[in-house]
Amino acid sequence: MARMPSPPHQGSHVRRPVSTHGFTLVEISVTLSVLALMVAIGLPSLREFRARQQASAMTNLLMSHFASARMTAISHNVPVVVCPSDGAGNCRNGTDWGGHWLSFRDPDGNREPDDSNDIYRNEPAPSAPSIRVVSSQGRRHVRYQPTGMSYGTNLTIRICYDGRVASSVVLNNTGRPRAVRGNLKTPC
Hints:
Layout: H1 25-76, E1 80-85, E2 100-105, E3 119-124, E4 131-135, E5 142-144, E6 155-161, E7 164-171, E8 177-181
Antiparallel strand pairs: 1-2, 1-5, 2-3, 4-6, 6-7, 7-8
Keywords: Cell inner membrane, Cell membrane, Membrane, Methylation, Transmembrane, Transmembrane helix
Transmembrane segments: 20-43
Pfam families: GspH
């Protein structure tokens, strides 16, 4: 006959090992210390990365604005001007290209839109509190001929982040834009 296991005694308790499912205070403190150290090391690199990304986006938008104006001049066979705008459809004098960018047809050569129908694009430039867009002295607007050429001197538009040059858009005297990466060490 098979022997049956005996039931546990009423008075005795069987102790099982207690398993923990958490972290100790020391483990959490060490983890937080390592995390704080990694953030402190990586934060300056992250700021520079953000500055470069914002400057790159601004550079690409400005270059696309110039390319669009050039293609419009060629396809419509009419001179097109690109200038910084006050937002109301007028060119602004000065070297500040922040705010708005204006593209318009300019058949009479007065470098101002004569009618609201002459305006192709009047767009706000992306705004960021730490970004400033300024051009070199001398050439304050770009006028594309129906051939796509833009005669005159070179124009450099600097995109500055916290007072340092992050990138530039350079237009040669034929009107072709190119991007130049800044080093964030050159003052604006």
